[in-house]
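Lab notebook, bench 4. Still working through the backlog of constructs that have no structural model yet. Next entry is a single chain of 150 residues. Request: give me the structure tokens for it.
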Amino acid sequence: MDGHMHGMAPPGQNGTGNTHNSVMHMTFFWGKNVDILFNDWPGQNSGGMYVLALFVVFVLVMIVEWLSHSNLIKQGSNHVVAGLVQTLMHAMRVALAYIVMLAVMSFNGGVLIVAVAGHSLGFLIFGSRVFRKASDGDDKVSDLPPLSTC
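Model written out:
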């Protein structure tokens, strides 16, 4: 054994012989030098791109919450069409949730905080009773929505 896992490039190389300065973290860390979702994105030593990456994660999480709590199907709709719309919305929600999960797996503390903040604000806006009209449903106290097992 040469100390490296088979099929994996040595540290500092991407498998093609080109050097790569990125380090894959396996514990949470703080800093803007991170790869989120794509190789070299947001890039090294680029604070502005890091903030943009955090914003993108936040928006993705807000969309996940909107999809989780929206009801785009009207009463009396065709059941087949309604089922197809529900299935499409579910597929989009799961795909975006997996993308957010992969972003959090960058082990960057800022990404985790933005993801949790986005879920919290998204639930406040789209899922809680704070912004619902009284006519949107009965006045019963509802439980938290079921957690998805993505």
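Notes after review: Residues 47-136 form one domain. The helical segments are 47-69, 79-104, 109-127. Flag for follow-up if needed.
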